[in-house]
Design a protein that fits this description.
six-stranded antiparallel β-sheet, 21% helix
Length: 92
């Protein structure tokens, strides 16, 4: 049932030219080189150290590994991670 509903929402988004991340409640992840990572539409921080940041998403988790990681801009639905980013892993 959820798969069918998801397909319908994707079709509506495409026909109305609405970004799918809004309709399907998907995260938007923007990376600037290996220095900054902006995560929009997240559900909270699970773990934070200087070498790992785990972020809860609507469908799974995002793992950010690196060096000297800092949370630069924390907002309700937006996180900016700064530092030297070595790996980004999306786990559903």
């Amino acid at each position: 049932m959820q798969r069918r509903q998801k397909g319908i929402l994707q079709n509506i988004a495409q026909r109305l030219d609405i970004p799918q991340d809004i309709v399907l409640d998907l995260p938007r992840i923007t990376m600037l080189g290996n220095k900054q990572l902006l995560i929009e539409n997240h559900k909270g921080i699970i773990e934070y150290t200087s070498s790992l940041v785990r972020v809860k998403l609507n469908q799974g988790e995002l793992y950010v590994h690196g060096l000297n990681l800092l949370l630069g801009n924390l907002q309700t639905e937006q996180i900016l991670i700064e530092g030297t980013i070595a790996e980004v892993k999306y786990d559903t």
